[in-house]
Amino acid sequence: MEFTQGVGFEEFGLSEATLRAVRNKHYTISTPVQAGCIPPMMEGRDVIAKAPTGTGKTMAFGIPIIERIDPESEAVQAVILAPTRELAMQITDEMRDIAVCHEGVRLVCLYGGQPIGKQINALKRKPQIVVATPGRLSDHMKRRTVVVKDVKTVVLDEADRMLDMGFIHDVTRILDKIPHRENLGMFSATISREVMDISWVYQRDPEEITVQATKENKPDILQYAITVDSDKKVDAIAKIIRAEGYDRVICFCNTKGSTERLCKFLQMRGLDAACIHGDIPQRKREAVMQQFREGKLHVFVATDVASRGIDVDDVDAVFNYELPEENEYYIHRIGRTGRAKRHGVAYSLLSDFPSRMRLSDIQRNTRSQIIPATVDDEGHVTETEK
To answer: With a threshold of 0.90, does the pTM exceed it?
Structure first.
């Protein structure tokens, strides 16, 4: 089923507690993915939804989960799996917003990199909803600190990304251990062969929801390809940030080494920059991301590990210091700007022929409109002839 518009939340037959929480967030009309997923999930049916990033998927599965939870029970009743700790934390925050008016509904977030003892203590509060990365949930299940025999609903968020990252065995092991599951929701930006394989094995006659990228839900992002010598890339970024007066910027690199170097070079040019990558301790990563969310950090430098886990609606611009190796990553990177119907800008810096060919491939495969441009000494960007 294809959806292009949503309906009022009152039409879903939701409890007053959920409607109050929705009104607290100043929402009145659902997004297309919410309109497509909430009714079948409320009925306990399987759902497979293909929808672009930033279309309200968390509320599409979060509302039915919260509505169906028995707050009197201390058993785990719902499991939500996410590919990265950043996304798991983001989902947990949004689920807490939905559950705020429901007394007795408890959530826990489980992910690698955080002391397992701290998570075991949180589990002693008997949460009914577990949001987790697949590896860490498997660990807890082996230790019997999470028991999933009474779980009724499972959601795989960003299923394509999760399976691409090699979590397929963890995911199938978890699903196999949930014998009384009533429904499985799968949410994905793309429906890959691996996603279809999981659907064929674990879903029963799923409701298929497709939300096309329309003008309404497609981010408003101006995309530039800037040709610049490799040793001038850092100067170009610093000059553009200053010329445009950007307050909140994300710069993406492909490796931990280039992330560290770019961050240091931007700091040397007087910019307030910090970076995260896989080798930085989890506590520090969370602190940096929190600073960025709160507007206390102007330039955030990251590898792709963070590109889907940053829940900030007012990122002014994204810079691709290096082009991503996967076409999908380009969409996820630039999708950090232009959110919540704001205007966004993305700059890709090109310094050689291979990078120009790589961007051509990205442009063709993602159907992006990328404008060739140059930057002058003042940081002003000028479009050039193709």
So the answer is: no
